[in-house]
Amino acid sequence: MSSSWEQLFFQILLLVVFCRHINTKTPGPTPPPLVSINSPLPTDIRSVVLKGESHTESVELLNPVNLTLECTWTGNQNKLPNITGFWRKDGDEVENSRLTVQLENDQYNLKRVFSIISEENLGNYSCMFESEAKIDFVLAAPHMHEVRDKPIVSYVGDSVVIVCKMEETKPKPSTWNWYKANGTDKEQIFTAAEPLRYEIKNDERKTKLVVYNLTEADGGLYYCGAVYAINTTMGLVELKVINFTEPLKPFIAITVEVIVLVVAIMFYERYQSKKNYTAGKGMNDQTNTLTQGENNEPEEGSSMRQRKV
Amino acid sequence: MAPATATKLGYTPPDGGWGWAVVFGAFISIGFSYAFPKSLTIYFKEIQEYFFVSYSEIAWLSSVMLASMYAGGPVSSLLVNRYGSRPVVMVGGLMVSTGMILASFGRTIVHLYLCVGVIGGLGLAFNLQPALTIIGTYFQVKRPLANGLAMTGSPVVLFTLAPLNQFLFDSFGWRGSFLILGSIVLNCCVAGALMRPVNKNSRSQGCVHKIIDPTLFKHRGFLIYLIGNVVMFFGFFAPVVFLAPYAKHQGIDEYSAAFLLSIFALVDMFIRPATGFIGNTKWIRPRIQYFFSFAVSYNGVCHLICPLLPGYVGLVVYAIFFGLAFGMLSALLFEVLMDLVGAHRFSSAVGLVTIIECGPVLLGPPLSGALVDIFGEYKYMYYACGVFMLVPGIFFFIMHYFNYKKLDEERRQTVALEMRTCDEAWMKHSESNFPEGLI
Predict the structure, then answer these.
(1) Is B196 close to A290, i.e. CB distance below 8 A?
(2) Where are the annotated segments for Disordered (chain A) (predicted)?
(3) How far A191 CA lies from chain B's nearest CA (Å)?
(4) Rounded alpha-carbon distances, angstroms, from residue B354 to B71, B72, B325
(5) Which phi and psi (to 5°) does residue B263 adopt?
(6) Where do the domains of chain A lie, and which CATH numbers do they carry?
């Protein structure tokens, strides 16, 4: 009697283990991740008509999408009835994309739907007609153009504001992130971790990173990331932190130059008036010498009291 | 007109010699006075971000500086009348320098308003007036040329400061740049050192320098100048301020728009000494007020035509013609005042003129900006500026025609009489103020 209970117990145990085993093992290859499991991806279409040999089209994407790319080619001199068309992504041929394209209404037409879900799906997609005509579609999230290319300079102990802006003509990002470069890596800056050192102020199209109490180590590359559903685009800003003694050097140099010049001019004047005092001692009639020549005019000065101008 | 003023001075100005060194000093002082406030705008964006202020709050810095510079005019005149040009310019240079050095340590935007705006602006006023005044003491025959050369300082210094400021900003940020600019403006002290007081013949001093001269308001020529200038200044600076924005509004890219300003500045630079030279010729000099009236009217015509010129080429043509007009007017602006009131009253006159011009100079650009905002386009602003310059131009032509007639009449009657009265006044004055006497 106990052995049948043991057997049942053992079978139930096996069943439970087996079922668990079934549930933890996935049967086939991992299906591509979907942004939202409940609703399907939106669709969009981009069409280009090519008259020459090649054309590049920029496609700005914000969200994951099922993107249809359509290429139309007017053909060359020999309008062959059938040509080969295929697609490339970032230079590599897309599998199973080779088709025979027929001449319709004096044009060749190639169309394909791509699932653009995340960063790996962005890039350069090309439709090729034989090896003669090419249309490039550059798929990317909006890029910032107004980023300062020269370094921002600030001082040890001072604070600095680094700004990144997305132009009015581009769509606004959902949020902004800031990163500091660490060798070849980027480390995200979290203000909660160091509230006395960093502050991030976000507007819709503008983001400001404030760094307080700068040290020389704070210098380097900073990245502002405009976050879109599809990808985060980066802008690069360089920060240079210098000591206050740096501008002091040219300051002192120029001040010295000024002092030297002023003293030189004063001495020259003193020298000239001394020279003319001895020369002018013998002169009685100042009126005559006044009208004589321009050079005599300042030389007269010594013997007379300088009147205010 | 010219000979009468010379005898009023009571001595023969050197018209050369050390005078050319003085012109160079004036060139530097005038250059910094006009160009320094304009060149600081390069730092505005960073300062605006640093202090978390709005664009209009940072633009206030320029306005405070300009207001101080113009309001400081009478104070400057007073000091020049009392102490002469040299000490005032040197103090002015030290003031601007101190202002900039203090500003480089600033912690609030108000700190900047005070240091750069008030102290800096006042220091620049102490450079401008004395520089203009001293030219009148060194030059008579070649005065228009000397004035034209000295006024060339403004575009030349601006041309130098603009890229220099950009370089300083890229290398040192705004704080370090302000510190270094503090030392650069000290060169105004060098300019002041060059402004050696001119030697005056002891024989007769001419009319005494009054400390403040309210009788100027009864002076016909002065009144014509004042009234015309007040109206004119409403439309004088706005077209320069809006040249680049207007170009960008037409769809022209930023670099080409900036290039327009460079063309304008380059033409301005060369036309100023040329105008001085032309004003000095024997055909123009006796009737130089007409030359000035022409310059003012020409500015007006330029602005009226501007909106009709199409495309970038049209704007380049406008920039060239406007550069010519602006330069001509600037070169003659103070020369004609000297011509009207005489070198010995010039200091007081220019002080009064600058403080009264303060209003239109400060109101002009914002009012023009308001016109652009209301109508959404620039052409009405240009028409308005054109009218504000053409009307005074015509006013000047008419009024000076009558003025010249009256002056010729008066000259015939009163020259001798004035000489005698002046000698008496000087005798009285010299006894009370200069007991040692001179001879």
Answers:
(1) no
(2) 278-309
(3) 19
(4) 7, 8, 21
(5) -60, -45
(6) 43-140 (2.60.40.10), 152-245 (2.60.40.10)
Residue A201: closest C-alpha in chain B: B52
Mean pLDDT for B352-371 is 87
Taking a C-beta distance cutoff of 8 angstroms, is the pair B198, B344 a contact? no
Q: How far apart are CA B175 and CA A188, in angstroms?
A: 29
Q: What is the pLDDT of residues A115-158, one digit of tens each?
A: 888 888 888 998 888 878 888 889 988 888 777 788 999 999 99
> What does the pLDDT read at residue A152?
92
Interface confidence, given as ipTM, is 0.84
* Closest listed residue to residue B184, CA positions, set B172, B202, B195, B201: B172
Low-confidence stretches of chain A (pLDDT beneath 70): 1-39, 280-309
What's the pLDDT tens digit per position in A188-218? 888 888 888 899 998 888 899 999 999 999 9
Q: Which amino acid is at B106?
A: G
Percentage of chain A lying above the pLDDT 90 cut: 24
- For tokens 């700068």, name the residue: A214
* A174 within 8 A of A207, measured Cβ to Cβ: no
| Facing B189 at nearest CB: one of A163, A258, A286 | A258
CA B432 to chain centroid: 36
pLDDT in tens, B324-354: 999 999 999 999 999 999 988 899 999 999 9
* Number of neighbouring beta carbons within 10 Å of residue B45: 15
Q: Which two tokens stand for residue B273?
A: 């000494």
Q: Which chain B residues are closer than 8 Å to A253 by Cβ? A: 183
pLDDT of residue A309: 43
Q: Is A130 left (phi over 0), alpha (psi -120 to 50) or beta?
A: left
First to last CA, chain A: 132
Instruction: Print burial letters for A229-266: b (CB count within 10 Å at least 16), e (below 16).
Output: bbbbbbbebbbbbbebebbeebbeebeeebeebbeebe
Q: H/E element holding B140?
A: none
Looking up tokens 């000024």, which residue turns up?
A: A258
Residue with tokens 């791509």: A114
Answer whether B234's CB lies under 8 Å from B357's CB.
no
Q: Which residues of B touch A273 (CB under 8 A)?
A: none
Q: Are A213 and A242 in contact (CB under 8 A)?
A: no
| Coil, helix or strand at residue B312 | helix
Q: Judge: A287–B203 Cβ closer than 8 Å, yes or no.
A: yes
Closest chain B residue by Cα to residue A302:
B199
B205 close to B430: Cβ distance less than 8 angstroms: yes
